[in-house]
Specification:
Elements lengths: L2 H6 L2 H17 L14 H5 L7 E6 L6 E5 H7 L1 H9 L6 H9 L2 E7 L9 E20 L4 E22 L4 E8 L6 E10 L4 E8 L4 E10 L5 E10 L4 E10 L5 E10 L4 E4 L2 E4 L7 E10 L5 E4 L2 E4 L5 E9 L3 H9 L4 H18 L5 H16 L3
Parallel strand pairs: 3-4, 4-5, 5-6, 5-7, 6-8, 7-9, 8-10, 9-11, 10-12, 11-13, 11-14, 12-15, 13-16, 14-17, 15-18
Antiparallel strand pairs: 1-4, 2-3
């Protein structure tokens, strides 16, 4: 955030930033002793460059009852609304506090009760170098429905923090592609609060950046809430990517599903640290968590720790993880049908990753975009 822009900001926003900056210094960066960070290359997140340039583009034609705009535009037209939303902003850790102190822009998606959108809303964030901090606020009223598609691209050091709250019966489909340059650093945190019978699903493809982290915290607070995460980290060279989902079932009859896949070549490092918490009183919980990984080279590695913490009765919970090589039998079968070895290998790898997209509940155009992204990535496999 440039000094000139900070000077032009209202007093309440400058004070908010100052408080968050003080919290960042007070908390300090996480260490390798912190369980959710123990496998992560913390040097990449600690070595932040100077503030850089970034562009935030919002696409869509929202109808009445839908506000989909940038912080900058809301600050110019309805500063009291932005102040109310940011007054609720949380900074549970040092990086979230830094993001709140330094965000260059952000977006608000606010949907009135009962409004249902058929066409996806699109968000493109391009980091043009340096450090860029983006903040998102999503609010869906009772019975509202929408699909939000994010694409993060460019270079530099990117921090993205989003909070989403879904009221009773609301439904949000959230899709994200991360295709930053191979030398970039990417840190993302998504916090969800789900009311009764609310339904949220995330589909995340993490392909870019030297070091990337996707942290998701879902709080199922209303009876019958549903949460789904389908993700993939597709890595080569010396890339590192982490998925850190935490799902807390605080109400009865809630359902959650987590399925994260990894494809790793070169000396890439994948990390999955999943957690499902079911406290007392959350009877009727139905939760499942899986992490499957495909290693393409001897130097690739995975640290995976799916975890359950169950304190309630009458629940159905499962978790599991696998790490393996390419199925040679399947490859031989394809080659016996006249498919060249390299093409057979590519087809099997793409099919393994594509299940994340194929089994997701998405609009057809958005599904096609994700499949094209996967095909482009697979075509570059050595």
């Amino acid at each position: 955030m440039s000094a000139a822009l900070q000077t032009a900001e209202p007093v309440w926003l400058r004070e908010l930033r100052a408080t968050a900056q003080a919290r960042f210094h007070g908390l300090g960066l996480p260490s390798a002793k912190t369980e959710s960070w123990r496998f992560t290359n913390l040097r990449a997140f600690a070595a932040r460059p100077e503030e850089g340039l970034a562009a935030l583009t919002l696409k869509g034609n929202p109808p009445a009852g839908v506000r989909f705009c940038t912080f900058q535009s809301l600050l110019a037209t309805a500063p009291e609304r932005l102040a109310a939303l940011l007054d609720q902003a949380e900074a549970p850790d040092a990086f979230a506090a830094l993001n709140l102190a330094r965000f260059h822009d952000g977006y608000v998606l606010d949907i009135a009760p009962g409004v249902q959108l058929d066409a996806p809303l699109e968000l493109i964030h391009t980091n043009q170098g340096g450090a860029a901090h983006l903040r998102g606020i999503v609010r869906l009223g009772a019975g509202a429905s929408a699909t939000l598609a994010e694409h993060h691209q460019g270079s530099g050091w990117t921090s993205s923090v989003t909070s989403a709250a879904l009221a009773e019966g609301a439904r949000l489909r959230h899709v994200k592609r991360q295709t930053l340059s191979p030398n970039a650093t990417y840190l993302s945190a998504l916090t969800l609060t789900l009311g009764a019978a609310a339904d949220h699903s995330s589909v995340i493809l993490s392909l870019g950046a030297a070091v990337a982290r996707e942290a998701i915290t879902a709080r199922l607070e209303g009876e019958g809430a549903r949460f789904s995460l389908r993700g993939a980290y597709l890595l080569g060279g010396r890339q590192q990517a982490s998925f850190v989902p935490e799902v807390h079932h605080f109400a009865r009859g809630c359902t959650s599903r987590q399925s994260v896949k990894g494809v790793l070549g070169g000396e890439a490092h994948g990390i999955f640290l999943g957690h499902i918490g079911v406290p007392q009183g959350s009877d009727g919980t139905d939760a499942a968590q899986t992490n499957r990984n495909l290693l393409l080279s001897p130097g690739a590695r995975v640290d995976t720790r799916p975890r359950l913490e169950i304190l309630a009765d009458d629940v159905k919970c499962s978790h599991g993880a696998t790490v393996g090589d390419l199925d040679e039998t399947a490859a031989f079968y394809l080659q016996s049908r006249g498919i060249p070895p390299q093409e057979a290998r590519r087809m099997l790898i793409e099919a393994f990753a594509a299940e994340i997209v194929e089994e997701a509940d998405l609009p057809a155009p958005l599904r096609a975009t994700l499949q094209e992204t996967l095909s482009t990535w697979a075509a570059l496999l050595p």
